[in-house]
Design a protein that fits this description.
With about 200 residues, this protein is mainly alpha-helical. The protein contains seven helices and two strands, in the order E-E-H-H-H-H-H-H-H. Helices cover about 75% and strands about 5% of the residues. It has a two-stranded antiparallel ribbon with strand order 1-2.
Length: about 200
């Protein structure tokens, strides 16, 4: 899987990165439609990206993939069996203002803590840069699992930072993927806003 398929902008692109790319795009497209198949796709793509990021010394991003795998299992269960506060099946909905403030505050507080851990415990050359999209992604994944519209603006921010991080590391196919994710997250945000207005249940 680490065999080089082609070279882009002077950096090798492996078959591992290509397969992870395809699975990740399929996952986001399934999320648009609030289709439960997005979760097994998330597990598969995360496993492959864990290998890719570890090979690039992006240890925060690599470790995050294992968190993603666990959260994908939880999110899969939530979409199949989870209930809202009203006891009904989960619907696409918006997060209350107070909860949004808490989510933002916890994410910003966790960022320097994880950055300091990566700085001290690993040989990462971008510990704080790596830490920011890591903690943001955890927040986005939790919000996605509970079908909150706000997961999408979180992913927009995470993807923009990730584009810069992966460009720094020369992972050009992944740069393209996350640039694509940014546009897809904007589209997903609009689509879920419409679903929330209709009170739609999908799965």
């Amino acid at each position: 899987m680490f065999a080089v398929a082609f070279t882009a902008w002077g950096s090798p692109v492996t078959w591992l990165e290509i397969v992870a790319f395809v699975l990740a795009v399929a996952m986001v497209l399934a999320n648009f439609r609030v289709h439960v198949v997005s979760w097994p796709l998330a597990i598969a793509s995360s496993a492959l990206y864990a290998l890719l990021f570890a090979d690039s010394r992006l240890y925060g991003e690599a470790s995050l993939q294992f968190v993603f795998i666990a959260l994908a299992g939880w999110g899969w269960w939530q979409w199949l069996r989870g209930r809202g506060d009203d006891g009904q099946a989960l619907r696409v909905r918006t997060l209350p203002a107070r909860a949004r403030a808490w989510a933002l505050g916890l994410t910003l507080a966790a960022w320097p803590l994880l950055g300091a851990l990566l700085h001290r415990a690993t040989d990462s050359d971008v510990p704080y840069f790596d830490a920011l999209p890591t903690v943001g992604s955890i927040a986005g994944q939790v919000l996605l699992g509970r079908k909150y519209v706000e997961n999408w603006p979180v992913w927009v921010a995470v993807n923009v930072v990730s584009v810069a991080l992966f460009a720094w590391k020369g992972l050009w196919l992944t740069v393209i993927l996350y640039a694509l994710f940014t546009g897809m997250a904007v589209a997903g945000w609009r689509a879920w806003q419409a679903l929330a207005a209709r009170g739609a249940v999908h799965g």
